[in-house]
Amino acid sequence: MTDLMTATLQLRVVAPPADAGPRIIALIPARNESDRIAAAIEGLFAQTRVPDEIIAVANNCTDDGATREAARDAGAWVLQLTGVKGKKAGALNLALDQVLPTLRDEDMVLVQDADTVLVEHFVEHAAAAMRRRVGAVGGVFYGEGGGGLLGQLQRMEYERYAWEIGKRGGRATVLTGTASLFRVRVLRQVKAARVAGRLPGGSSYYTIDSLTEDDEITKAVKTLGYKTMSPAACTVTTEVMTTVGKLWNQRIRWQRGALENLRSYGLTKVTARYFGQQIMMGAGALAFALFLWLTAWQLILFRSLAFSPFWTCIGVIFVVEKVVSVWRMGWRARLLAALLVLELAYDLFQHAVYFRSLYDLALRREERWAAT
Questions:
Q1: Lateral strand order in the sheet of 77-81
Q2: pLDDT digits (tens, 9 = 90+) for 183-194
Q3: pLDDT tens for residues 229-283?
Q4: Has residue 289 got a pLDDT over 90?
Q5: To 10 degrees, what angle do helices 331-339 and 148-167 make?
Q6: Cβ pair 185, 105 in contact under 8 A
Q7: 68 near 80, Cβ under 8 Å?
Q8: What's the sign of the alpha-carbon dihedral 336, 342, 343, 349?
């Protein structure tokens, strides 16, 4: 009997009575993650609300069964998949096709990366946030330690993203692929809407055509009329890129994926905000480039910078906002934010990613997924 059949039969045997509360099934897609998947599974068993089933989705692994065995030893069921197209999205689609028939609409599915360990109350708080028209709950992600200065800049970026989510009352812009909880009813509706042509992206739960399936499924859930949330208590820690090359590949994938998803959906009530964010990002990058150009010319022509009380006040406000938004990270982050220069260089890097992605999109260059 295959691992796939074993896991499916187990789910059917433990199917709850009709009057039982919502069940939570955890899916952990993994490819050659034998060194980290055990910690992810142990983190789920340590939750204040332990998932009813934990299933590792071993996807096209080439490590001689090491990922499968590590997951089994940690106490998870295993779906062994080979020949899957679509990487993580394709594996999740096959796993969901196996799992969802055993579940009710009010049950929930947690999708978690194999290199992630959740805080012990993540599942409890995520499930509690499933109120009214909330269709999915994502984590608020922070950067793990290490990576030197480059890692610190990424951690500060993630801290500011969490700060922005908090200011929006926990409304999620993107359901992070690191860890997100979905209503089964919503997942079924996403697939049905794709099949009916009401949503782009193929005919399953996740689209395999996007570089950023987490961003795409967020738009899918919202298009169906549901809210997406990221409660402050649902924190996850994600890896930081340790080299500029890896960071470039990661951000090109994120930015190009976001732009491709907007092109697929077009301008709608849901995507209008996302289009606005992209336009403002471009306008900000152009304004910053113009500022640098004018400053350089002023130094070349006059060999000094003119003092402007108005623009000095604007600059001070900008620095204060930078410092306040990373205040919880401690004095090192505050000092780095106050110095500003290194963060401006990091911003220039992000702007380069943005314009390169626009350029590739305009030329309709083939999307390429690069491992990071």
A1: 77-81, 53-59, 24-30, 108-112, 179-183, 134-138, 227-229
A2: 999 999 999 999
A3: 999 999 988 889 999 999 999 999 999 999 999 999 999 999 999 999 999 999 9
A4: no
A5: 90
A6: yes
A7: yes
A8: negative
Residues of 236-249 as b/e, b for ≥16 C-beta within 10 angstroms? bbbbbbeeeebbbb
Cα(5)–Cα(298) distance, rounded to whole angstroms?
71
Q: Which of 161, 160, 150, 217 is nearest to 189 (CA)?
A: 217
Domain coordinates in residue numbering, the chain: 3-242, 245-372
**CA distances (Å), origin 208, targets 86, 204, 264, 279:** 5, 9, 13, 26
Structure tokens at 217: 């499924």
CA dist 281 and 289 (Å) reads 12
The pTM for the full model equals 0.88
C-beta contacts of 64-69 below 8 A and 24+ residues apart: 66/32, 66/34, 67/30, 67/31, 67/32, 67/33, 67/34, 67/37, 67/114, 68/3, 69/34
What residues pair up with 27 in beta bridges, in sequence order? 55, 111
Cβ count near 141 (within 10 Å): 22
**CATH superfamily to which 3-242 belongs:** Spore Coat Polysaccharide Biosynthesis Protein SpsA; Chain A (3.90.550.10)
Q: How many Å apart are CA 357 and CA 326, to the nearest integer?
A: 28
State what percent of residues in the chain have pLDDT above 70: 92
Q: Which residue has the higher pLDDT, 367 or 308?
A: 308
- Phi and psi at residue 124, to the nearest 5°: -60, -50
Alpha carbon distance 230, 142 (integer Å): 13
Phi and psi torsions of 81, nearest 5°? -115, 135
Q: What CA–CA distance (Å, rounded) separates 14 from 212?
A: 34
Tokens 């964010």 belong to which residue? 277
Given a contact cutoff of 8 angstroms between Cβ atoms, the answer to whether 93 and 208 are in contact is yes
- CA contacts within 13 A on the Cβ side of 320: 6
